[in-house]
Write a structure and sequence with these properties.
The chain is mainly beta and about 70 residues long. It has strands at about 5-10, 15-20, 25-30, 35-40, 45-50, 55-60, 65. Strands 1, 2, 3, 4, 5, 6 and 7 form a 7-stranded antiparallel β-sheet that branches.
Length: about 70
Amino acid sequence: DQLLANKWEIVNGEMHIVMDEGNAWVFRINKDRSLTRIVYMDKDGKRTIPPKDEQHTWKRVNRMQRREDRP
């Protein structure tokens, strides 16, 4: 998966996945240790919140898999 091949870091309780261009996806680390994509951040640090239908959650099984969207 291309997204997981990029650099990542934990910043203030969020996981930032930085892409080659310097832009990043920001994930919330949930209590159950799943990850929810909550923000797109450009290389200058400007944060854009995607629509709810694009804020997917991934739960670790044997490897990261996208969980079905919840109502």
